[in-house]
Amino acid sequence: MALYSNTRIALRLLTARLCNDLIKGTVTTPLLGSFVCAEADWERSDEYFNDWIEVFCYQSAGVNAGTSGNPTDWDNITPTFNHILTFLPQALLDAGDLVEMHRTFSVETYNDYINMAIDMIAEEALLNKVDESVPLATDTYQYNLSTQFLYVNHIYMESATTGVWDEEKPIDPRYWRVVKKATIVVEFVKEYWTPTDGRKLRITGLASPSKLDIDTELCPVNPAFIANQAAALLHQSRIRGSGVDTEWHSEQMKLCQAMADKIRSETPSFNVGLGGARPVVEG
Questions:
Q1: Are residues 118 and 247 in the same domain?
Q2: First to last CA, the chain
Q3: 253 and 202 co-located in one domain
Q4: Cα(250)–Cα(121) distance, integer angstroms
Q5: pLDDT in tens, the chain (283 residues)
Q6: Helix H or strand E segment including 244
Q7: CA 212 to chain CA mean position, Å
């Protein structure tokens, strides 16, 4: 079960490391509502993890991925590396399941801030998008446009002889426009162009990166930027008044933000040339 560097899981783990808020482990000897974790990183004194906010199974050969609990008891018992973590609500994990533990931010919070970082770059980190699913109909001049499009470059009509699109012969851009009716549509000028019933359109353009909804979803944006930007925002959320904790979060926020800004300025794909692409009308 591969764990890619730009899945939501990987982004969350990296972001949590930047927040000094992560310990990972592999379940051994699972019991209902508890399990043994026999790894050196878990060599902590009794009750050490009791006040951590979440234990979360992020990878499982079975059905346990997504299982979350609140640590309630940590027993550091002999022999070495034979430690039992108890959590609520009770669930039975499997041997070999991978878990992450957090003491500052929850998994849901990490996921939200990762998506916030994606939103911040949404209009810079544009992605090429192609939609070949729109069927034409006689005397119909308006066709719904995928909501993912931010810009449209070219529109082609399917060839009658080969069933494919001649990319050297797009429909003349004077013959169509993008407008907002009840929904956003491509509208053809009937005086200049007539759709052929049964053929399909091929619409090419640029789209913004979508938010990540599940842990295995891939993020098309530079993962180093997303993790550092999300971490900067998380650290910022903990800057309250004065004190050692606030000072630490303030310094970490500055470091993560500086790195995110550096990556943003040095990544060519964050500044896509629009050429003659037409913006999708939002209102």
A1: yes
A2: 44
A3: no
A4: 23
A5: 334 478 999 999 999 999 999 999 999 999 999 999 888 888 899 999 999 999 999 999 899 999 999 999 999 876 666 789 999 999 999 999 999 999 999 999 999 999 999 999 888 888 888 999 999 999 999 999 987 788 899 999 998 777 888 888 899 999 999 988 778 899 999 999 999 999 999 999 888 888 899 999 988 889 999 999 999 999 999 998 888 989 999 999 999 999 999 999 888 777 666 667 778 865 4
A6: helix 244-266
A7: 3
Pick from 202, 163, 171: nearest CA to 188 = 171
Handedness of CA 86, 92, 95, 96 (dihedral sign): negative
Domain interval for residue 165: 127-207
Dihedral (C-alpha) 173, 176, 178, 179: value to the nearest 10 degrees? 150
Same domain, 119 and 136: no
Helix %, strand %, coil % for the chain, to 5? 25, 30, 45
91, 7, 87: which is closest to 51 by C-alpha?
87
Same domain? For 144 and 198 the reply is yes
Q: Does 89 share its domain with 148?
A: no
Whether residue 191 sits in one domain with residue 137: yes
Domain count for the chain: 3
The helix (H) or strand (E) run that includes residue 57 is strand 54-59
Q: What is the C-alpha to C-alpha distance for residues 270 and 220, in angstroms, rounded to an integer?
A: 11
| Contacts (Cβ under 8 Å, ≥6 apart) of 13 | 22, 24, 58, 100
For residues 224 and 96, state if they share a domain.
no
Query: Could you say which of 103, 135, 168 is where a domain stops?
Result: 103
